[in-house]
Design a protein that fits this description.
The chain is an alpha+beta fold. The protein is globular.
């Protein structure tokens, strides 16, 4: 079963869910704010994705900007970054699609089409 981590007020998440519904793709919806993945799960998703860890951060989010993470992330260890991501779902890039062998962050229709 495909998992989709979203935030209900996020317009990109709404767009992604609409796209999935139109394609009649079955998925489990997980609220990122209420059920943020823990550090172990985030490490697994990161490894599965093959993406740079920075792609897991919601770089346009308020918390990211308030914490000035664009300046701090380059000096942080991977362990520190995972701990930070696990601390608040609003730091995690959304939507996050978790399929059998792939994890995608953000919604790019062409990427999602390949996976699904």
């Amino acid at each position: 079963m495909i998992k989709v981590y979203c935030y209900s007020k996020c317009s990109t998440c709404k767009k992604a869910l609409k796209w999935l519904d139109e394609k009649k793709v079955k998925y489990e919806l997980i609220d990122l704010k209420e059920n943020n993945p823990d550090e172990k799960t985030l490490r697994k998703y990161h490894k599965q994705s093959g993406l740079p860890l920075k792609r897991f951060f919601n770089t346009s989010g308020m918390i990211y900007r308030e914490m000035e993470l664009s300046k701090k992330l380059p000096d942080m260890s991977e362990d520190e970054q995972f701990k930070l991501l696990a601390s608040d779902g609003m730091l995690v890039k959304r939507p996050m699609l978790v399929a059998d062998k792939t994890v995608l962050t953000g919604f790019k229709e062409s990427e999602w089409e390949k996976v699904l």
